[in-house]
Amino acid sequence: MITPLSGLPLLGAFLVTLALVVSALSVPQRHRSLRLPNDTYPLFYNLHITSDIHKGVLLFSGNATIDVAIRQSTNEIVLHAKNLSDIQITVHQLMDNGGLEIVDNLTHTLHRAAALLIIHPKENFQAFEAGQRYRLEILYTAIMTTRPAGLYYMDYSEEENNRPAFVAATQSEPTFGRLIFPCYDEPGIKSNFSIKITHGSSYSAISNMPVKEILSHGDLKTTLFYTTPPMSTYLVAFVISYFESTSEKYRGVTQSIYAPPASKEKGQSALKNAVRTVAAFEDYFGISYPLPKLDHVALKKNYGAAMENWGLITYKDTSLLKNTTLDPRNPLWDRITQNHEIAHQWFGNLVSPVWWTYTWMNEGFATYFGYVITDLLYPEYKVMETFVAHEADSAYSYNSFFDVRPMSSYVESEKDIMGVFDIISYKRAACVIRMFHHAFRQKVFVRGISHFLEK
């Protein structure tokens, strides 16, 4: 990890007018809740990431410019940030006439135990009044990790005949967004994101939304993306790679499979399934997929089998790529995996939990309807029989081995949040949803779920 900037006394006058720089001093810190206070909230994020991953450089830099509103008067603005270095912050007040007024009497503190970045006045007073709006420009650096958490990297040299080849990808769920950029890293706090990535000219970048513009400058390119709809930070995603894609457009939605050039054609079966599945979900609930594209990216490393980022699903490559002429295995499990992630585009992405207490409302619905839609599309596999044998059996045998918790149970620490992504949230919740499906019958149940998604 890069150490924060030093030499603060020499830079004091400069920093007052331009930025606030974090110090590395270890000072006693009062205990703070791991939850964000409810005094402020984000209106808009402009996120710019710069990476030289094409050269194998793991250091990346970021500029997170966040417009925030003050909900109730407070002496601090609190965000999440973890393992970010060289932090510099400039704060402007957004005036009613559209102008900007710099606020130069502020400093900031990193509360490492709670992974918080706290912006506050140098002397204790109520600096931020209810109804005011501010623009935070936060510059920082960080280092990519080897494990799928935050922005991480993969070495594809072996796959490319020992030619240096690196790929960077994100894993923001559940609490890893704060490793990529300072943010309000809670699922119930949604905002719009305008994302741009600066990367090597031989590489490309993809994100949640389609590419808006590509600017070339020497050996680098900057890829700008259209603004997202309001979404949670755990769904923010981008991939920087040399991958190639194959695409198909249906009902106005372009779906693409991204993979290393030599493996691109192995995604044809997954592409066909994805196109059919999105259309099937639209017809089943009467609610259109809300984005203009949905990418499916095969990665050497992924957190689990797949991650449902809105508009950009990432997969462990073995779950997405198949040579249909050489691999005669039953494709059932790969399709269930893919359809689970596509179900999340409605359950979790369009409608998100206010807190991780309700993780089961993401994972239970995605598990159950992943099976339901797969059964509709491929009746020959008798998928619902597999659901009973595979999901229900393990869900109800869970009691024999572990302590049981309610489906809705409060958690707060990062470790405990990770712990609710378990058999209860995925499998037992899916069984309870199936029970209600049978109790209410098809017409009433589907109408109720559609109303839930619409509201």
Automatic annotation (TrEMBL):
Entry keyword annotation includes Heme: no
Entry's localization field: Cell membrane
Record-annotated active site: E341 (proton acceptor)
Site (Transition state stabilizer) residue list: Y426
InterPro entries assigned to the protein according to its UniProt record, in alphabetical order: Aminopeptidase_N-like_N, Aminopeptidase_N-like_N_sf, M1_APN-typ, Peptidase_M1, Peptidase_M1_aminopeptidases, Peptidase_M1_dom, Peptidase_M4/M1_CTD_sf
Domain Aminopeptidase N-like N-terminal residue range list: 42-235
Recorded family membership: Belongs to the peptidase M1 family.
Protein name per its UniProtKB record: Aminopeptidase N
Organism placement in taxonomy: Eukaryota, Metazoa, Ecdysozoa, Arthropoda, Hexapoda
